[in-house]
Protein backbone atom coordinates (compact mmCIF):
# COMPACT_ATOMS: atom_id res chain seq x y z
CA UNK A 1 0.00 0.00 0.00
CA UNK A 2 1.21 3.50 -0.84
CA UNK A 3 -0.38 6.41 1.03
CA UNK A 4 -0.12 10.02 -0.08
CA UNK A 5 -0.06 12.76 2.56
CA UNK A 6 -0.74 16.32 1.46
CA UNK A 7 0.24 18.84 4.11
CA UNK A 8 3.30 18.24 6.30
CA UNK A 9 2.83 20.88 8.97
CA UNK A 10 2.21 20.05 12.61
CA UNK A 11 -0.69 17.64 12.23
CA UNK A 12 0.49 16.28 8.87
CA UNK A 13 3.89 15.46 10.34
CA UNK A 14 2.23 13.66 13.23
CA UNK A 15 0.06 11.62 10.85
CA UNK A 16 3.03 10.78 8.65
CA UNK A 17 5.04 9.55 11.63
CA UNK A 18 2.12 7.43 12.84
CA UNK A 19 1.67 5.85 9.41
CA UNK A 20 5.42 5.29 9.04
CA UNK A 21 5.28 3.17 12.21
CA UNK A 22 2.20 1.22 11.12
CA UNK A 23 3.11 -2.28 9.88
CA UNK A 24 0.38 -2.32 7.21
CA UNK A 25 0.62 1.24 5.92
CA UNK A 26 3.39 0.55 3.39
CA UNK A 27 5.24 3.46 1.80
CA UNK A 28 4.46 7.17 2.08
CA UNK A 29 4.48 9.91 -0.55
CA UNK A 30 4.55 13.39 0.97
CA UNK A 31 3.72 16.78 -0.52
CA UNK A 32 3.38 20.29 0.85
CA UNK A 33 2.90 23.84 -0.39
CA UNK A 34 6.46 24.25 0.91
CA UNK A 35 8.31 21.45 -0.95
CA UNK A 36 11.33 21.80 1.31
CA UNK A 37 9.25 20.98 4.37
CA UNK A 38 8.01 17.78 2.72
CA UNK A 39 11.58 16.82 1.80
CA UNK A 40 12.84 17.30 5.34
CA UNK A 41 10.04 15.18 6.80
CA UNK A 42 10.52 12.49 4.15
CA UNK A 43 14.22 12.32 5.00
CA UNK A 44 13.43 11.79 8.69
CA UNK A 45 10.85 9.08 8.03
CA UNK A 46 12.41 7.26 5.10
CA UNK A 47 9.53 8.35 2.87
CA UNK A 48 9.40 9.95 -0.59
CA UNK A 49 8.73 13.64 -1.15
CA UNK A 50 6.82 14.75 -4.26
CA UNK A 51 7.78 18.11 -5.80
CA UNK A 52 4.13 19.19 -5.91
CA UNK A 53 0.61 18.09 -5.01
CA UNK A 54 -0.05 17.08 -8.62
CA UNK A 55 2.69 14.45 -8.46
CA UNK A 56 0.94 12.72 -5.58
CA UNK A 57 -1.91 11.97 -7.95
CA UNK A 58 0.12 11.31 -11.11
CA UNK A 59 2.76 9.11 -9.43
CA UNK A 60 0.02 6.96 -7.98
CA UNK A 61 -1.12 6.19 -4.45
CA UNK A 62 -3.65 3.78 -2.98
CA UNK A 63 -5.12 6.26 -0.48
CA UNK A 64 -4.79 9.90 0.48
CA UNK A 65 -4.47 11.79 3.77
CA UNK A 66 -5.41 15.48 3.55
CA UNK A 67 -3.79 17.47 6.35
CA UNK A 68 -3.06 20.78 4.66
CA UNK A 69 -4.68 24.11 5.58
CA UNK A 70 -8.48 24.19 5.60
CA UNK A 71 -8.93 26.10 2.36
CA UNK A 72 -7.36 23.23 0.42
CA UNK A 73 -9.47 20.39 1.83
CA UNK A 74 -12.49 20.55 -0.46
CA UNK A 75 -10.61 20.51 -3.75
CA UNK A 76 -8.35 17.65 -2.67
CA UNK A 77 -11.19 15.51 -1.33
CA UNK A 78 -13.17 15.91 -4.55
CA UNK A 79 -10.11 15.18 -6.67
CA UNK A 80 -9.36 12.06 -4.65
CA UNK A 81 -12.84 10.52 -4.76
CA UNK A 82 -13.21 11.28 -8.46
CA UNK A 83 -10.00 9.33 -8.92
CA UNK A 84 -11.28 6.42 -6.87
CA UNK A 85 -8.99 7.04 -3.89
CA UNK A 86 -10.11 6.47 -0.30
CA UNK A 87 -9.37 9.69 1.56
CA UNK A 88 -8.82 10.67 5.18
CA UNK A 89 -9.38 14.40 5.74
CA UNK A 90 -8.77 16.49 8.80
CA UNK A 91 -11.88 18.42 9.76
CA UNK A 92 -13.47 20.47 8.35
CA UNK A 93 -14.28 19.31 4.83
CA UNK A 94 -14.66 22.98 3.89
CA UNK A 95 -14.82 26.32 5.74
CA UNK A 96 -18.56 26.83 5.18
CA UNK A 97 -21.70 24.72 5.27
CA UNK A 98 -22.73 25.18 1.63
CA UNK A 99 -19.32 24.14 0.32
CA UNK A 100 -19.29 21.22 2.75
CA UNK A 101 -22.62 20.02 1.34
CA UNK A 102 -21.28 20.39 -2.22
CA UNK A 103 -18.25 18.24 -1.41
CA UNK A 104 -20.30 15.55 0.31
CA UNK A 105 -22.63 15.39 -2.68
CA UNK A 106 -19.56 14.85 -4.88
CA UNK A 107 -18.39 12.08 -2.54
CA UNK A 108 -21.80 10.45 -2.72
CA UNK A 109 -22.01 10.73 -6.52
CA UNK A 110 -18.58 9.12 -6.85
CA UNK A 111 -19.44 6.50 -4.24
CA UNK A 112 -16.24 7.60 -2.62
CA UNK A 113 -14.74 6.64 0.73
CA UNK A 114 -14.17 9.60 3.04
CA UNK A 115 -13.15 9.40 6.70
CA UNK A 116 -13.12 12.63 8.71
CA UNK A 117 -10.64 13.36 11.48
CA UNK A 118 -12.63 13.40 14.73
CA UNK A 119 -9.97 11.77 16.90
CA UNK A 120 -11.89 11.87 20.18
CA UNK A 121 -13.92 8.91 18.92
CA UNK A 122 -10.75 6.89 19.52
CA UNK A 123 -9.97 8.19 23.01
CA UNK A 124 -10.30 5.57 25.75
CA UNK A 125 -12.10 7.91 28.16
CA UNK A 126 -14.77 8.96 25.68
CA UNK A 127 -15.26 5.35 24.57
CA UNK A 128 -15.79 4.30 28.19
CA UNK A 129 -18.29 7.11 28.74
CA UNK A 130 -20.19 6.07 25.63
CA UNK A 131 -20.37 2.49 26.83
CA UNK A 132 -21.68 3.56 30.24
CA UNK A 133 -24.38 5.76 28.70
CA UNK A 134 -25.45 3.09 26.23
CA UNK A 135 -25.54 0.41 28.97
CA UNK A 136 -27.94 2.45 31.09
CA UNK A 137 -25.49 2.56 34.03
CA UNK A 138 -26.02 6.32 34.46
CA UNK A 139 -29.79 6.12 34.16
CA UNK A 140 -31.65 8.72 32.12
CA UNK A 141 -29.28 11.57 31.31
CA UNK A 142 -30.44 14.99 32.43
CA UNK A 143 -27.27 17.10 32.04
CA UNK A 144 -24.10 17.03 29.96
CA UNK A 145 -21.23 19.50 30.28
CA UNK A 146 -18.30 19.79 27.87
CA UNK A 147 -15.30 22.08 27.78
CA UNK A 148 -12.36 22.60 25.47
CA UNK A 149 -9.74 25.10 26.59
CA UNK A 150 -6.55 25.87 24.69
CA UNK A 151 -3.59 27.16 26.71
CA UNK A 152 -2.85 30.06 24.34
CA UNK A 153 -4.40 31.71 21.29
CA UNK A 154 -3.30 30.57 17.83
CA UNK A 155 -1.51 33.00 15.48
CA UNK A 156 -3.64 35.84 14.11
CA UNK A 157 -3.22 34.47 10.61
CA UNK A 158 -4.74 31.17 11.67
CA UNK A 159 -7.77 32.84 13.23
CA UNK A 160 -8.79 34.51 10.00
CA UNK A 161 -9.10 31.18 8.17
CA UNK A 162 -10.14 28.94 11.06
CA UNK A 163 -13.89 29.36 10.74
CA UNK A 164 -14.23 30.56 14.31
CA UNK A 165 -14.27 29.05 17.80
CA UNK A 166 -17.44 27.00 17.36
CA UNK A 167 -16.54 25.54 13.94
CA UNK A 168 -12.83 25.02 14.58
CA UNK A 169 -12.65 24.10 18.25
CA UNK A 170 -15.99 23.19 19.83
CA UNK A 171 -17.04 21.12 16.82
CA UNK A 172 -15.14 18.26 18.51
CA UNK A 173 -17.33 18.65 21.60
CA UNK A 174 -20.44 18.64 19.45
CA UNK A 175 -19.31 15.43 17.75
CA UNK A 176 -18.80 13.86 21.16
CA UNK A 177 -22.24 14.94 22.36
CA UNK A 178 -23.80 12.95 19.52
CA UNK A 179 -21.37 10.02 19.63
CA UNK A 180 -21.50 9.49 23.38
CA UNK A 181 -25.21 10.12 24.02
CA UNK A 182 -26.62 8.68 20.78
CA UNK A 183 -28.97 11.67 20.55
CA UNK A 184 -29.34 14.55 18.09
CA UNK A 185 -29.21 18.27 18.87
CA UNK A 186 -32.53 20.00 18.26
CA UNK A 187 -31.81 23.59 19.30
CA UNK A 188 -28.87 25.81 20.30
CA UNK A 189 -28.31 29.15 21.94
CA UNK A 190 -24.74 30.50 21.91
CA UNK A 191 -22.78 33.56 22.97
CA UNK A 192 -19.15 34.62 22.89
CA UNK A 193 -16.66 37.20 24.10
CA UNK A 194 -14.01 38.96 22.04
CA UNK A 195 -12.64 41.12 24.85
CA UNK A 196 -8.86 41.26 25.13
CA UNK A 197 -6.68 40.56 22.12
CA UNK A 198 -7.83 42.61 19.09
CA UNK A 199 -6.97 39.75 16.71
CA UNK A 200 -10.25 38.03 17.57
CA UNK A 201 -12.37 41.08 16.77
CA UNK A 202 -10.41 41.67 13.57
CA UNK A 203 -11.13 38.09 12.50
CA UNK A 204 -14.82 38.33 13.46
CA UNK A 205 -14.19 35.61 16.02
CA UNK A 206 -14.38 35.18 19.80
CA UNK A 207 -11.79 33.80 22.20
CA UNK A 208 -14.36 32.38 24.63
CA UNK A 209 -17.76 30.93 23.85
CA UNK A 210 -20.62 29.08 25.49
CA UNK A 211 -23.53 27.19 24.01
CA UNK A 212 -26.65 25.64 25.49
CA UNK A 213 -27.77 22.67 23.41
CA UNK A 214 -31.12 20.94 23.78
CA UNK A 215 -31.10 17.34 22.63
CA UNK A 216 -34.05 15.67 20.94
CA UNK A 217 -34.99 13.91 24.19
CA UNK A 218 -34.85 17.10 26.27
CA UNK A 219 -31.39 16.53 27.77
CA UNK A 220 -29.55 19.81 28.34
CA UNK A 221 -25.92 20.24 27.27
CA UNK A 222 -23.67 23.15 28.14
CA UNK A 223 -20.54 23.49 26.00
CA UNK A 224 -17.85 26.05 26.76
CA UNK A 225 -14.58 26.79 25.04
CA UNK A 226 -11.73 29.26 25.21
CA UNK A 227 -8.44 29.99 23.47
CA UNK A 228 -6.94 31.58 26.60
CA UNK A 229 -6.58 28.98 29.35
CA UNK A 230 -3.16 29.74 30.78
CA UNK A 231 -3.31 26.79 33.19
CA UNK A 232 -2.96 24.32 30.31
CA UNK A 233 -4.91 22.28 27.79
CA UNK A 234 -8.22 21.18 29.29
CA UNK A 235 -10.74 18.93 27.56
CA UNK A 236 -13.49 17.30 29.62
CA UNK A 237 -16.98 15.91 29.34
CA UNK A 238 -19.27 15.36 32.31
CA UNK A 239 -22.41 13.24 32.02
CA UNK A 240 -24.99 13.29 34.80
CA UNK A 241 -27.85 10.84 34.95
CA UNK A 242 -30.53 9.90 37.44
CA UNK A 243 -28.37 7.02 38.75
CA UNK A 244 -24.77 8.21 38.47
CA UNK A 245 -22.40 10.70 36.86
CA UNK A 246 -18.98 10.39 35.22
CA UNK A 247 -16.30 12.62 33.72
CA UNK A 248 -13.83 12.15 30.89
CA UNK A 249 -10.54 14.01 30.82
CA UNK A 250 -10.22 14.13 34.61
CA UNK A 251 -6.80 12.86 35.69
CA UNK A 252 -3.57 13.99 37.34
CA UNK A 253 -2.75 16.17 34.32
CA UNK A 254 -6.04 18.07 34.17
CA UNK A 255 -5.09 21.75 34.62
CA UNK A 256 -7.53 22.62 37.39
CA UNK A 257 -6.90 23.10 41.11
CA UNK A 258 -9.29 22.50 43.99
CA UNK A 259 -9.87 25.19 46.61
CA UNK A 260 -11.05 22.63 49.15
CA UNK A 261 -8.73 21.98 52.12
CA UNK A 262 -8.65 18.26 51.39
CA UNK A 263 -9.07 18.42 47.64
CA UNK A 264 -6.73 16.74 45.15
CA UNK A 265 -3.39 18.46 44.46
CA UNK A 266 -2.97 20.59 41.33
CA UNK A 267 -1.62 18.91 38.21
CA UNK A 268 2.13 18.58 38.35
CA UNK A 269 2.50 18.42 34.58
CA UNK A 270 -0.61 19.80 32.83
CA UNK A 271 -1.40 18.82 29.26
CA UNK A 272 0.28 21.23 26.83
CA UNK A 273 -1.88 20.71 23.76
CA UNK A 274 -4.08 18.46 21.67
CA UNK A 275 -1.32 16.36 20.12
CA UNK A 276 0.01 15.40 23.54
CA UNK A 277 -3.41 14.83 25.09
CA UNK A 278 -4.86 12.87 22.17
CA UNK A 279 -1.71 11.30 20.71
CA UNK A 280 -2.91 7.68 21.13
CA UNK A 281 -6.31 8.59 19.70
CA UNK A 282 -4.72 10.11 16.60
CA UNK A 283 -2.71 6.93 16.06
CA UNK A 284 -5.80 4.76 16.49
CA UNK A 285 -7.70 6.97 14.05
CA UNK A 286 -5.08 6.45 11.33
CA UNK A 287 -4.96 2.72 12.08
CA UNK A 288 -8.73 2.63 11.49
CA UNK A 289 -8.20 4.37 8.14
CA UNK A 290 -5.63 1.75 7.12
CA UNK A 291 -8.13 -0.99 7.97
CA UNK A 292 -10.80 0.85 5.99
CA UNK A 293 -8.55 1.10 2.94
CA UNK A 294 -7.68 -2.60 3.20
CA UNK A 295 -11.36 -3.50 3.42
CA UNK A 296 -10.94 -4.85 6.93
CA UNK A 297 -13.08 -2.44 8.94
CA UNK A 298 -15.98 0.04 8.82
CA UNK A 299 -15.75 3.78 8.33
CA UNK A 300 -15.67 5.22 11.87
CA UNK A 301 -16.61 8.77 10.85
CA UNK A 302 -17.95 9.31 7.35
CA UNK A 303 -19.08 12.55 5.78
CA UNK A 304 -22.60 12.29 7.16
CA UNK A 305 -21.33 11.99 10.73
CA UNK A 306 -18.97 14.92 10.27
CA UNK A 307 -21.74 17.01 8.71
CA UNK A 308 -23.94 16.52 11.77
CA UNK A 309 -21.28 18.01 14.06
CA UNK A 310 -20.55 20.83 11.63
CA UNK A 311 -24.24 21.77 11.41
CA UNK A 312 -24.33 22.15 15.21
CA UNK A 313 -21.26 24.39 15.07
CA UNK A 314 -22.81 26.40 12.25
CA UNK A 315 -26.02 26.80 14.25
CA UNK A 316 -24.02 28.05 17.25
CA UNK A 317 -22.18 30.60 15.14
CA UNK A 318 -25.48 31.80 13.68
CA UNK A 319 -26.96 32.01 17.18
CA UNK A 320 -23.98 34.01 18.44
CA UNK A 321 -24.12 36.48 15.60
CA UNK A 322 -27.91 36.90 15.55
CA UNK A 323 -28.36 36.66 19.35
CA UNK A 324 -31.22 34.16 19.19
CA UNK A 325 -32.11 30.49 19.58
CA UNK A 326 -31.51 28.50 16.40
CA UNK A 327 -33.30 25.29 15.50
CA UNK A 328 -31.13 22.73 13.73
CA UNK A 329 -33.79 22.19 11.10
CA UNK A 330 -33.22 25.81 9.96
CA UNK A 331 -29.93 24.69 8.42
CA UNK A 332 -29.70 22.86 5.10
CA UNK A 333 -28.61 19.23 5.00
CA UNK A 334 -28.07 16.48 2.48
From TrEMBL:
Residues 250-273 are annotated as: Disordered. The keyword Oxidoreductase applies. SUPFAM superfamilies: Glyceraldehyde-3-phosphate dehydrogenase-like, C-terminal domain (SSF55347), NAD(P)-binding Rossmann-fold domains (SSF51735). Pfam families: GFO_IDH_MocA, GFO_IDH_MocA_C3. Keywords: Oxidoreductase. Residues 126-242 form the GFO/IDH/MocA-like oxidoreductase domain. The keyword Ligase does not apply. Residues 1-116 form the Gfo/Idh/MocA-like oxidoreductase N-terminal domain. It comes from the Bacteria. Belongs to the Gfo/Idh/MocA family. This is Dehydrogenase. It comes from Streptomyces cirratus.
Amino acid sequence: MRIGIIGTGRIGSFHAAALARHPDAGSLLLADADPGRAVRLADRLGATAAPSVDQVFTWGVDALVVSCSTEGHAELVVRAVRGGLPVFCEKPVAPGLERTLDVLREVGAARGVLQLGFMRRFDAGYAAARALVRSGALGRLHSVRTTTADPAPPPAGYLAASGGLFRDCLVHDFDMVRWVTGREVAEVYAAGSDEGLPAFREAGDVHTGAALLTLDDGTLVSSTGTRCNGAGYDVRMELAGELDQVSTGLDDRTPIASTEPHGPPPAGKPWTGFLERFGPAYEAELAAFVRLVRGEGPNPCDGTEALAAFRIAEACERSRRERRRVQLDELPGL
